[in-house]
Specification:
heterodimer; A: alpha/beta; Rossmann fold; 6-stranded mixed beta sheet; about 30% helix; B: mainly beta; 2 domains; 11-stranded mixed beta sheet; 3 helices
């Protein structure tokens, strides 16, 4: 039996994975290597190492202000880390912006989706897709995320939509974009009681299309639904592993860090 | 439609421009009440039951009276077409529009000056909306490179009436635009006025809109959206006066600046009745960063995303 090296959790992300050409699967991953981020003299992230393998689902769990969204924005190219590297399929993409990363297969939904005047849901959902998206596909995706096609497809993405509705449309857009890596920043925030069920449906759909899911959350019951999890606190990586293990640890510590800011 | 025999060529030229610009040519049909002006001449006129349009040629322009009888509801808009097909000159149009009670009408006004290089257009309109009537007034413009435009509109909305005015100059150059609109509202009257303008190069745009909420429970909304590029200069003053009991008004100005444009916006609210309520929202700035980034995460470049946001804002 051939055993693959353990590469799921960041300790192993060489700069050029092509040297491990005997295993093509190794190349298909998104990595953060020793990533740090500071702003206005304040350190927000320190030495973050994370690896996201293609086809798997991950959650980044942590309390408010832990640096989770900063990690997501660094992965997406919205922020450039002040230290370390971002690697995609073994190649450095640290300096690439949002558009370039999207074109390489990374996309994201933000915690607070923007509103746009004069842009209708139908037009928005077909933006940027490589393939022509048909009405049936739009209907299917809208219904999957719990919105009626008849009621929403022709509506403007403006103030007339609630935060929850905007969030669902953003998730639908991500499904239609079919990225290789889908980053979901707090996908359940602003959603009603059906949020858990919706996340399960999304994960199932992404699993089917082989999309890697990186889910940012502070709810352990949401994190539990992914394959693996990273627990981040005060800008540091505290624990990594199978999501059940990490969530158990998170519950035990009540989401608190076991170290203090400034400790080595 | 009655077309002046010696003006058929001008009429056809206007029709061609409508087709070229993607405007609705069916507005020239016989079932549509219309006045077609070219320069200082009335080249076409059509009345339908319930609508009476009378035109008079004045020095350098046209004066027109439009009367809508009581209880009229039209399936088609009333078409007001003002054209000027030369490159230089001056034109003045005066419209007096009176809508009777319990009527529901829509006006589509087109100002067509496609070849203008050094041309001044002056328009003065007075619109009276009768009790419980509803008027939608769409104003669209096709401008050449050199139009100096001064437009003044006074609207009076009677009890329970509603006026919706939409002005748009986004596909062509504004050059020199001075737009003044005032709406006076009686009890339970409603007015919504929207203006969307794109200013480029050294265009100069001045928009002044005022809502006089005189009636009890009257309600008004003023909204201006301007996108200013290059070295253009834009000045927007939106005023709302809360005078009647429980009058409610909202003023909104949004300007997006790109390049060296100089933009100023002044929302002015004045309340003379402690039961009235006025609000305002104003912003000048670059394109919203969150909108840009989130569109770029769909694979659009920054320029494509900015263009899409601006098109959406201007309703293009």
């Amino acid at each position: 039996m051939f055993l693959f090296p353990t590469v799921g959790f960041g300790q192993f992300c060489p700069e050029n994975l092509k040297t491990y050409s005997y295993e093509n699967f190794l190349i298909k991953m998104l990595c953060l290597r020793n990533v740090g981020y500071s702003k206005d003299g304040r350190t927000i992230l320190r030495s973050i190492n994370m690896t996201f393998r293609e086809g798997m689902s991950y959650s980044i769990l942590g309390p408010n202000g832990a640096g989770k969204s900063t990690i997501a924005r660094i992965l997406m190219g919205e922020l450039t880390p002040t230290e370390g590297q971002v690697l995609l399929d073994g190649k450095e993409v640290t300096g690439l912006g949002v558009t370039e990363r999207t074109r390489r297969g990374i996309s994201m939904t933000w915690q607070e989706p923007a509103r746009y005047e004069g842009i209708r849901v139908r037009e928005y959902l077909t933006l940027g897709g490589k393939l022509k998206i048909g009405e049936d596909e739009i209907r299917d995706v809208l219904e999957l995320i719990g919105l009626s096609y008849e009621f929403y497809a022709g509506r403007f993405i403006d103030k007339s939509l609630s935060g929850g509705e905007r969030k669902r449309i953003e998730l639908a857009s991500l499904l239609l974009l079919r990225p290789r890596y889908a980053i979901l920043d707090e996908p359940d925030s602003g959603l009603d009681i059906t949020a858990g069920e919706l996340i399960e449906k999304l994960l199932a759909r992404f699993r089917k299309t082989g999309t890697t899911v990186i889910l940012i959350t502070h709810h352990e019951e949401i994190a539990e639904k992914t394959d693996f999890a990273y627990f981040v606190c005060a800008g540091r990586l505290v624990k990594k592993g199978f999501s059940r293990e990490v969530v158990d640890y998170y519950r035990k510590t009540c989401g608190r860090c076991l170290f203090v800011e400034g400790s080595p | 439609m009655t077309i002046k025999v010696n003006r058929v060529k001008e009429y056809e030229a206007l029709l061609d421009i409508y087709e070229r610009e993607g405007l609705d040519t069916s507005l020239f049909g016989d079932r549509v009440a219309a006045i077609i002006i070219s320069g200082s001449k009335i080249i076409g006129l059509n009345n339908v039951p319930g609508v009476e349009i009378k035109g008079e040629e004045i020095e350098n322009g046209v004066r027109a009276d439009v009367r809508i009888a009581d209880g009229v509801e039209l399936p088609f808009p009333i078409h007001l077409c003002t054209g000027y097909l030369k490159s230089e000159g001056y034109q003045r149009v005066e419209f007096s529009i009176e809508v009777g009670t319990n009527s529901k009408v829509k006006f589509t006004s087109h100002c067509i000056f496609p070849y203008a290089k050094d041309f001044t257009h002056e328009a003065a309109s007075k619109i009276t909306v009768g009790e419980n009537s509803s008027v939608l007034y769409d104003d669209e413009h096709v401008h050449g490179e050199g139009v100096r435009m001064i437009s003044r509109t006074e609207v009076e909305v009677g009890k329970g009436g509603r006026y919706t005015g939409r002005f748009s100059l986004t596909k062509h150059r504004a050059r020199e635009l001075k737009l003044e609109m005032t709406a006076k509202l009686a009890d339970r009257a409603v007015a919504e006025m929207t203006s969307k303008v794109k200013a480029v190069k050294d265009d100069s745009v001045e928009i002044k809109e005022a809502l006089l909420l005189e009636g009890a429970h009257s309600r008004g909304d003023l909204k201006s959206t301007v996108i200013a590029f290059d070295e253009s200069q834009v000045n927007v003053v939106n005023e709302a006066y809360g005078l009647g009991d429980y009058a409610k008004g909202h003023v909104e100005c949004h300007e997006i600046v790109k390049g060296e444009a100089d933009v100023q916006t002044v929302p002015l609210l004045r309340v003379r009745n402690d039961k009235a309520e006025l609000t305002h929202e104003a912003s000048i700035g670059r394109i919203n960063e969150a909108q840009l980034v989130q569109l770029m995460a769909k694979g659009l470049t920054e320029e494509e995303a900015a263009e899409l946001i601006m098109k959406g804002l201007l309703g293009e």
